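Budget justification aside, the reviewers requested a transparent look at the raw inputs and outputs of the sequence design task funded under Objective 1. We therefore reproduce one unedited record. The lines immediately below are the structure tokens for a 230-residue chain.
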């Protein structure tokens, strides 16, 4: 039997895309309409944001652990979190976690290295791009990285929280990301991380001047691979 995937969710759009990817692509390995068992628990995004606004990552970690414990009781074998920003708290989570985790940035960095990319643009919430979540994992693979400018960070952050997490998708947002990606390409990037799990809802290779690393689907596929090989 495949392993049981536990999902510690945060924002609805990103978690839904991750869940949907596992379900749809599970059929490729397990047969039509089949996928591994999945259990997901989510506290409200607003609960997490209250802590993030206060820079209280210990409270973020405690909330993630509460979800993890609920999921573990259902029989899950391992955990994923389809939210890049929350990974800032993961070092505080793992030592107390009832189950092992897949790390979204490790999955993305491994994909970038396997495809031969050398300099990676990082996009995501302001909290994510100003953290060491991706720089640490990319550097461990010998990869260089580039963060958005301060103005770009603010606009991307606004798009994510005012639009994408609310299910609002505008052509102007696509254009804004394209401008950022073009600037990163001009500065030597050969790929870009879609480092917010909602960004893939509007951006992909067809719209991007750079190859994209879709953190949401890459995490889902890594979870599926682990579950199927269990």
């Amino acid at each position: 039997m495949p392993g049981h995937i536990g999902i510690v969710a945060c924002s609805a759009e990103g978690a839904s895309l991750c869940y949907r990817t596992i379900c749809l692509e599970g059929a490729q390995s397990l047969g039509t309409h089949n996928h591994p068992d999945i259990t997901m628990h989510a506290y409200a995004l607003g609960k997490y944001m209250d802590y993030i606004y206060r820079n209280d990552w210990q409270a973020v970690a405690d909330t993630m652990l509460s979800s993890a414990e609920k999921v573990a009781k259902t029989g899950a074998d391992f955990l994923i979190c389809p939210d890049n920003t929350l990974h800032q708290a993961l070092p505080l989570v793992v030592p107390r976690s009832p189950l092992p985790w897949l790390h979204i940035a490790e999955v993305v960095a491994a994909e970038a290295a396997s495809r031969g990319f050398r300099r990676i643009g990082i996009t995501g919430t302001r909290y994510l791009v100003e953290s060491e979540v991706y720089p640490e994992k990319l550097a461990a693979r010998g990869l260089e990285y580039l963060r958005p400018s301060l103005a770009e960070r603010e606009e991307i952050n606004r798009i994510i929280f005012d639009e994408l997490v609310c299910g609002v998708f505008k052509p102007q947002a696509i254009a804004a990301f394209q401008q950022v990606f073009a600037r990163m390409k001009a500065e030597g990037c050969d790929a870009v991380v879609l480092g917010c799990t909602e960004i893939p809802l509007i951006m992909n290779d067809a719209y991007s001047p750079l190859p994209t690393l879709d953190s949401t689907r890459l995490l889902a596929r890594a979870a599926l691979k682990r579950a199927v090989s269990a």
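Residues 104-215 form a domain with the Rossmann fold fold (CATH 3.40.50.1860). The chain has a mean pLDDT of 97. Computational costs for records of this kind are itemized in the attached budget.
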